[in-house]
Design goal:
Radius of gyration: 21 Å
Shape: elongated
Structural class: alpha+beta
Distance between the termini: 10 Å
CATH architecture of the largest domain: 2-Layer Sandwich
Number of domains: 2
Oligomer: single chain
Number of helices: 5
């Protein structure tokens, strides 16, 4: 199969289940909302080493938010519900409550259950906190030096999908990087998804375990390293490929992840110098979701 003249390998991305939260962060200005959303989703690239996978889903204009202010929807993900509950409290409390003029609202439309993040965080008000109604939502108002911080009492979580991915193989690093950037831009238009790695782009694709160091849970994917293609016997890098980037996608459901992968492939294949699109999997031994690239079209 080819898309825009680029080969789409007959393979699949292996994704896995994860617990997902989705919340709306608003502020007095779009800039302030973006700052808070960015802080709250930091150190959130991969659950291999980070306490959560996290990222910005989309911008929400003032006319669509409960408090009539600009905002960003962010997603925070963890394999374990209790750990996700902890991450919500930590990230909202340390990164959003501390940011100027912010408020937090639940943005999970079909939650499996609710975390009492706001009800826990209200105690920062030291008895001066108040319960309010904002656009039909029960929120707590916590007094701060600069004014009041508002947070909805409960934040929803649900079972989602993590680890959807594509590999972009290009004739050089510049072409691969440009293709990765336009792919991430395309995914930004798919509601309910994030690309948790820096700028949405993965430079360090990994494999489970290690060939040499048994204490490692993950290590570099040597078969996909362009500088090793002449050293590794079973390399998967064609001779004319000198730039490879991965895009990893988390979503609130499998369909969202599929839509994001499709959009990413369509965008990446428009860039001159892109030679092939592939995906990462572990032979079906890691995740419950096997998203075939050819089935996306």
């Amino acid at each position: 199969m080819q898309i825009n003249g680029v080969e789409i390998e007959d393979t699949f991305a292996e994704a896995f289940g994860i617990q997902v939260s989705r919340l709306l962060v608003t502020a007095a200005t779009k800039k302030l909302a973006k700052i808070a959303a960015t802080e709250a989703t930091g150190y959130g690239t991969s659950v291999i080493g980070c306490p959560a996978e996290a990222g910005i889903d989309c911008y929400v204009p003032p006319e669509e938010t409960p408090d009539g202010r600009p905002g960003y929807i962010i997603m925070i993900c963890n394999m374990n519900k209790d750990k996700l509950d902890h991450e919500l409290l930590e990230r909202v409390g340390m990164c959003i409550l501390t940011a100027a003029t912010t408020a937090v609202f639940d943005a999970m439309d079909d939650a499996d259950e609710k975390m009492k993040t706001g009800q826990k965080l209200k105690f920062f008000g030291d008895g001066y906190e108040k319960k309010l109604e904002v656009a039909g939502k029960t929120v707590f108002s916590i007094p701060l030096m600069s004014g009041d911080f508002l947070i909805e009492g409960e934040l929803g979580i649900k079972s989602g999908v993590a680890g959807g991915n594509i590999f972009i193989l290009a004739e050089n690093q510049a072409a691969g990087l440009l293709a990765a950037e336009v792919a991430v831009d395309a995914i930004e238009n798919v509601k309910g998804t994030i690309t948790p790695f820096p700028g949405g782009i993965v430079a360090s694709g990994s494999k489970v375990g290690s060939n040499k160091y048994k204490f490692l849970g993950a290590s570099t994917n040597e078969k996909m390293c362009v500088t090793l293609k002449d050293e590794v016997e079973d390399t998967e890098i064609p001779a004319d490929v000198n730039g490879v980037y991965e895009i990893v996608i988390d979503g609130e459901d499998e369909e969202s992840v599929k839509a994001a992968m499709k959009a990413a492939i369509e965008a990446a294949t428009t860039v001159p110098g892109v030679l092939k699109i592939s995906a990462g999997n572990f032979g079906g031994n890691l995740g419950a979701y096997k998203i075939a690239l050819h089935d996306l079209f």
